[in-house]
Amino acid sequence: MKILYVASEVTPFSKTGGLGDVSGALPAALAALGHEVKVVSPRYSSVQDARLTPTGHTVELRFPFGTERGPLLSLQLAPRLELLFLEHAHYFQRPGLYGDSGGEYGDNPRRFAYLCLGALQAAQRLGFIPDIIHVNDWQTGLLPVALRRGFQDTELGRARSVLTIHNLAYQGQFGKHVMDELGLPWDLFTAEQGLEFYDGVNFLKGGLQFADALTTVSPTYAREIQRPEAGANLDGLLRHRQGVLTGILNGVDVDEWNPETDPHLPARYGVEDLTGKAACRRELLRRFGLEDTGAPVFGIVTRLAWQKGVDLLLEVLPTALEEDIRFVAVGNGEWNYEEGLRALQRRFPGKVGAFIGFDPALSHLLEAGSDFFIMPSRYEPCGLNQMYSLRYGTVPIVRATGGLADTVDGSDDGTGIVFNDFVPEALLWALGRARALYADPERLRAFQRRGMVQDFSWGASARMYERLFASLLAE
C-alpha cells in the first residue's frame, strides 16, 4: 500500500507528547512491513537535520486572506520511508509547536489548515497517489473534510482516510469566524454532519465526521470515549460512528527501552538475570540523596497535570511515607503540582527525591531503579510508562482506565497492581499491596519476569493497522 501519514509532530524532530512518539514509530513499522510511507509534518524551528534536502517543489495554497506558500523538504529515513516537511517561516519558526507562555497561538486555525491542505498538495506535487491517508488528532482534522469536499474529483479522491484520536480532550475549537477566514463552505457549519460545535468550529469533530475509519490508542479508551464521562461532548458522535471505531494499542520503542542494552544505566540486566537492577536502584537513590534502608522504592515519570492524577498522589503520599518507603519523581507541568512535590521533599528529607524538569537519562534510570512505578491517572488513552516499567522489571501500580487497563494484569498471578476507583482509599490499598509483594521476594520476582516477557513492540500494532487499511481498500 501507499500510505500518506500526516501529523503535527514527529519524534525525534518535534514532540510535546505521545503523538510525536507514535508518529516517529508507526510509519517506520509500516514501512518495515513493505508499504511505501510518506510522513508530512511542519518544519518547526526544532527541525534542523543536516540531511534535509529540497524537493524542488513548493506548496502554494490560496485562502481568502491571501496566498500562502513555502518549500517542501525531504528526509529519506529508510528505503520505503520518507519524511516531508512543510516549511513556512511565519507559521512554524516559533518557540512552541502550538503556543507559548502566553497561551495557544491565535492563528492556529490557519497554521494547521496549511498543514492539512499542504499535505494533500505535496502528494500531488510528488505524484504520490496514496491508497490510505492516515491523520492524527485535531491538527489534521480538516484533512478528511478537504479530501471529501475539495479533492474528491482529483487523483487523490480514491484514497481512504483514517483518523487516530490520541487524546479526545484536545479538539481544536475556534470561533465561527474561522469559516470565512479559511474559505470553508457554510453548508459545513451544521451540528449533524459538519464542523459546528456549540456555535463554534471544531476541527476534530470535522475529522470524526468525514474520515472513513476512526482509531484510538487502546481498546478500553475506544469504549470509554463513547460514554458521557469520558466523551468530552463528542460521545454521541462516537457512538453514532462506533461501527468504524477501533482501539489499537500503541507500541513502544523496544530498542530504546531495553534494560539489556540501555546506555543510561550503570548496569544492564534481563529477564534471566536481574542482578543489574539492584545496581540501578542504588544509583537512583544516590542521585537523589536518599537513604537506602532496603525499603521499597516507588517512582513516577510524568507530565504534572490533572489528567495524570497527581493531586490524588500528593494527597495519599504523606500517609504512605509514614511507613518505611522511598519515593522519587521526575516531571514538570502545572505549577501547583510542581510545588506540591517540592513541599513533599522538604517534609520527608531522605525519603523523597524530586527532579522538576525533563531528563531522558534520569527517566531511564528511574524506570530501572524503582521497585514500583505509580500511574494513578484520571484517564489515560494509552500510556507508555507502564509498558516501559514492565520491560524493566518495575511493577506498575495503575488505575484501571484506558491503555493502563489493557496492558497491566492486576490478578494474583499478573504483572502489576490495579485499582479501580479514583479515591485515596483505593490508591492506599494499592500501595499497601505493593509493600506486601515487596516483602515476598520470590513472588515479586515472578511478577517482574511475567512483565518483562510481554510484547509491546510496534510490529504487533502495525500489523493491526495494516489489516484495517486492507479492509478499507477491500470495501
Please describe what this structure looks like.
The protein is globular. The relative contact order is 0.10. The longest helix has 19 residues, at 108-126. α10 links the parallel β15 and β16. Helix content is 37%, strand content 22%. α3 packs across α4 and α9 crosses α12. Strands 3-4-5-2-1-8-9-13-14 form a nine-stranded mixed β-sheet, sandwiched between helices. It has 475 residues and is an alpha/beta fold. It starts with a strand and ends with a helix.
Layout of strands and helices, then pairs:
Layout: E1 2-6, H1 18-32, E2 36-42, E3 53-63, E4 66-78, E5 81-86, H2 89-92, E6 99-100, E7 103-104, H3 108-126, E8 132-136, H4 142-149, E9 160-165, E10 173-175, H5 177-182, E11 196-197, E12 200-202, H6 203-210, E13 213-216, H7 219-224, H8 235-240, E14 245-247, H9 275-288, E15 297-304, H10 310-321, E16 326-333, H11 335-347, E17 352-356, H12 360-369, E18 372-375, H13 385-391, E19 395-399, H14 402-407, E20 417-419, H15 424-438, H16 441-452, H17 458-474
Parallel strand pairs: 1-2, 1-8, 2-5, 8-9, 9-13, 13-14, 15-16, 15-18, 16-17, 18-19, 19-20
Antiparallel strand pairs: 3-4, 4-5, 6-7, 10-12, 11-12
Helix pairs in contact: 1-17, 3-4, 4-6, 9-12, 10-11, 10-15
